[in-house]
Amino acid sequence: MPAAIFVITLMAAIAAGINLLVSQNAETFQEETQLTRAFYAAESGAGFAMNALFPPDEFPNYNTTAICPENAGSPREYDFESEGLSGCSVSVSCVTDATVDGVDYFTITSTGSCGDVTRTIRVRTSFDAD
To answer: Which residues pair with 17 in a beta bridge?
Structure first.
């Protein structure tokens, strides 16, 4: 009889330990997913700003949404509706750091948020008007 009680107690302890590990792994996986989604939201915001600063030749009017230098320092907010980033948002700002010999230097800061997780990306770029 004592052996049976020992085995039952041991099995219960093992089951509790496995349950704890599984729940911790599930929480970690969910947090990693949110971190990845926030990173991609921030990356998308930086891409929006780069396209606004340097519009593709096919879309010359795209720069009407430019955030730099006209709106330097004031962030633009975007909410995503696509399946992968649904529920995420991004705040994008741009500042003109300097103009040296006709070359403008910009810093784009993009902060993506998904739930209570945020990721920030900073891009430095330049534009030679000549």
So the answer is: none
Distance CA 79, CA 25 (A): 29
Q: What is the pTM assigned to this prediction?
A: 0.71
Tokens at 82, concatenated: 């696509």
> How many helices and strands, by DSSP H and E, does the chain display?
1, 4
| Number of neighbours of residue 87 by Cβ within 10 angstroms | 13
Q: What is the pLDDT of residues 100-121, one digit of tens each?
A: 888 888 889 999 999 889 999 9
Q: Give the tens place of pLDDT for each residue, 44-82.
A: 999 888 887 877 777 666 554 556 655 555 788 889 988
67 contacts: CB under 8 Å, gap ≥ 6:
49, 52, 53, 74, 76, 92, 93, 94
Per-residue buried b or exposed e for 31-61, using 16+ beta carbons within 10 Å of the residue's own CB = eeebbebbbbbbbbbbebbbebbebeeeeee
What is d(CA 106, CA 67) in angstroms, rounded to the nearest whole number? 11
Is domain 2-128 annotated with CATH 3.90.320? Answer: no
Question: Domain coordinates of the chain in residue numbers?
Answer: 2-128
